[in-house]
Design goal:
The chain has strands at 3-7, 10-13, 18-25, 33-39, 46-51, 58-60, 68-73, 78-83, 92-99, 112-113, 117-122. With 123 residues, the protein is mainly beta. β4 and β5 form a beta hairpin.
Length: 123
């Protein structure tokens, strides 16, 4: 049974930082490209960042480029999202997802999803 479990969300003031983690089990982690998506209240889910199996390729949404950093530790079956200079518009539920093919910015490409972790940025 595949499980993706996010952690690290919380309440932070604008300009602050958070580090999200996504712990994977039940799959061969290094066979999956991984991604972060987010969904704010009343909005559609949107792509945040993705990383290839061996970390050689990473892509970011324009809205987070330069502020967020995606990484992974295949030995620990864990992916991370370091979020700096947070803005109120970053407030959302953040989801991690696994994609058995190449990196993708499209949610449909991802087979497995976590339950999400809430990030709230106050102004």
């Amino acid at each position: 049974q595949v499980q993706l479990v996010e952690s690290g969300g919380g309440l932070v003031q604008a300009g602050g930082s958070l580090r999200l983690s996504c712990a994977a089990s039940g799959l061969t982690f290094n066979n999956y490209a991984m991604g972060w998506f987010r969904q704010a209240p009343g909005k559609e889910r949107e792509f945040v960042a993705t990383i290839s199996r061996g970390s050689s390729s990473v892509y970011y949404a324009d809205s987070v480029k330069g502020r967020f950093t995606i990484s992974r530790d295949n030995a620990k079956n864990t992916m991370y999202l370091q979020m700096n200079s947070l803005k109120p518009e970053d407030t959302a539920v953040y989801y991690c997802a696994g994609n058995p093919a190449a990196v993708s910015t499209t949610g449909r490409a991802y087979d497995h999803w976590g339950q999400g972790t809430q990030v709230t940025v106050s102004s």
